[in-house]
Amino acid sequence: VQQYPSTRFCSPIKDGEYWACGLPIIIPKYVSDDFEFAEVEQIGFVLNDTSELSFSAVAQDLLSVWQDKTAYTSMRERCRQFVMKDRNVVVYQEIYRDTFLKN
Q1: Using one digit for the tens of pLDDT, what is the confidence trace for 8-66?
Q2: 86-101 pLDDT, tens per residue?
Q3: Which class for 46: exposed (0-12), middle (13-18), buried (19 or more C-beta within 10 A)?
Q4: Are 15 and 36 in contact (CB under 8 A)?
Q5: Which of 6, 11, 21, 63 could form a disulfide with 32 if both were Cys (CB 3.0 to 4.6 A apart)?
Q6: CB atoms within 10 A of CB 67
């Protein structure tokens, strides 16, 4: 997905599935809201742009987390906790039921 204002809320990948598996994401800035979650919740790595410098910086950050067992375990746990809180299907089922099945 190219970085344009119209793609602000477009998510080309299934970030929730990665997070549910405990995997951090790598995502370009301003593509979907997930880049904000990755930064704020510390559950991924954000590319500031598509330059080689940005890719290199993210790769270094990723490697440093993977090489530190405590940091890696902590990130995996944050990913799982985020999904359970933000992408919980039960919560959405209740909202849909209340919205569409009200008489």
Answers
A1: 666 656 888 899 999 999 998 887 889 999 999 999 999 999 899 999 999 999 999 99
A2: 877 777 788 888 888 8
A3: buried
A4: no
A5: 11
A6: 9
SS3 content of the chain, % helix, strand, coil (to 5): 60, 10, 30
Q: What beta strand segments (E) does 1-103 contain?
A: 25-28, 44-47
**What are the strands, taking DSSP E only, across 1-101?**
25-28, 44-47
Task: Give CA–CA dist 39/29, Å, rounded.
Answer: 10
3-class state of residue 26 by DSSP: strand
Please tell me the number of Cα atoms within 13 Å of 78 on its side-chain side: 16
**The pLDDT of residue 71:** 97
DSSP string over 28-40 = ETTSTTHHHHHHH
